[in-house]
Amino acid sequence: MIDARAAIIRAHHEEWARVVASLAKRFGDLDIAEDAAAEAFATAVQRWPADGVPPNPGAWLTTTANRKAVDRIRREHKRRDKQREAMMLTDDAPPEPTGAIDDDRLRLIFTCCHPALGMEARMALTLRLVGGLTVPEIARGFLVQESTIGQRITRAKGKIAAARIPYRVPSARDLPARIGGVLAVLFLVFNEGYLATGPDTDPVRADLTAEAIRLTRLIRELLPHDGEVTGLLALMLLTEARRPARVSAQGALVPLVEQDRDAWDHALIEEGHRLVRERLASGVAPGRYQLLAAINAAHTDARDARDTDWSQVVALYDQLVRLDPSPIVALNRAIAIAELEGADAALQIVDRLGDALDGYHAFHATRAELLRRLGRREEARAAYDRAIALAGNTAEVATLSRRRDDLADAVSGTDRAGRERGSGSSSRGGGGGSSSGGGSGSDS
């Protein structure tokens, strides 16, 4: 007999987005879609243990949710548009234009990530309606009050309704401009899980990284030939592969050079490398996510940190900085320069970024490591202090504190840290933000 609880969990993971998307398409109302889907899963929790798991759980949930939605509409006697209601109930409404690709889930993602919504609202709405996370789960993930997340979702759905944002994939002409916004949302969700920003949560949120990867796989399933979709998936996989070795038993972030590479998830690495090779074989000039993935591939290809091909990493960063000349890209490039040309050359680059990155803890962490390698211990200590004051992640704080305290025992700038990468914990998984360009593996 199939375990009902396990079946419900699996169905929620696999079918939630499909159910919500099909309801949103039919009824044109995200509130109705979300509530009816939730009611269908609640009904499954009650009935499946007694009645047994249906042969097709997805179809059962979709049918049940549709009935719940229709019942709700019939109960709402004061709906203003009775003609639209009747059309929905009979399902005879003329079809909306479908855009470049006719897929309910993709329509839902593009609706949640519409540029008319703020980035925070896009992230919350995507995680709720597409990812199926609850409001408390989203609130914990981003360290805000549940009421704040609830308000963001409510306001976002209200804006979609008020602005009559169409529930469809953009046209083929508009799709290239819109897909970037969707990928940016997924990238930010992944980064928050990769290195959580707040002090009162797990330093690594595996639930958020897993959800970002799942949603990116969905996008790639629907847009298999889009290079940046493939690049982002490869970047996430190669970064996630290092997670088992990233945090020590003492709760400190483990630098890449110190990680047990046998503990990495080599299946994810193999998949990520395959995707990178696929894009290289395409002959199409790579975009930002593809370059970040290639940088991660160079790091994860080395069996030992000493075998890293730094000239290749710097060459990839040279390409990336032309696409994304942000100060964080320059910071991560400087970290690679430190390994290829030395700490002094890297420090000159880093110091030029001070005006732009003074409030960014990773800038000070990177600078501290470079000063440490040059034997300038007092300056390094001050830089560590500044980085610790700005950092929020508990594992990062623990690592930075250890390195600062180790300075007291160092006899020269070529102590055991001389082989450590420049940043230690300098950049976040894919780059720490929508405008950044990390993801080199330079942090952990």
Low-confidence stretches: 90-102, 411-442
The shape, in one word, is elongated
Count of β-strands:
0
Q: Provide the gyration radius in Å.
A: 24 Å
Q: Give the helix/strand class.
A: mainly alpha
Helix content: 55-70%
Q: What is the average of the pLDDT values?
A: 83
User: Which H/E pattern describes the elements?
Assistant: HHHHHHHHHHHHHHHHHHHH
Discrete helix count: 20
In terms of DSSP E residues, the strand content is under 5%
Q: What is the distance, rounded to the nearest whole angstrom, between the alpha carbons of the first and last residues?
A: 44 Å
- What kind of sheet is the major sheet? none
What does this structure look like?
The structure is a single chain. This protein has helices at residues 4-27, 30-51, 57-75, 82-90, 104-112, 119-130, 135-142, 146-162, 175-194, 206-222, 227-240, 266-282, 288-301, 310-323, 327-341, 343-351, 354-357, 361-373, 377-390, 394-406. With 444 residues, the protein is mainly α. Among the domains are: 4-90, no CATH class; 100-217, no CATH class; 326-419, Alpha Horseshoe (Serine Threonine Protein Phosphatase 5, Tetratricopeptide repeat). The chain is 64% helix and 0% strand. Mean pLDDT is 83; it is low at 90-102 and 411-442. The two termini are 44 Å apart. The longest helix is centred in the N-terminal third of the chain and has 24 residues, at 4-27. The protein is built from 20 helices and no strands. Helix 2 packs across helix 3, helix 18 (361-373) packs antiparallel against helix 19 (377-390) and helix 19 (377-390) runs antiparallel to helix 20 (394-406). It is elongated and about 75 Å long. Belongs to the sigma-70 factor family. ECF subfamily. Residues 76-97, 402-444 are annotated as: Disordered. Pfam families: DUF6596, Sigma70_r2, Sigma70_r4_2. It comes from Agromyces tardus. One of its GO terms (biological process) is DNA-templated transcription initiation.
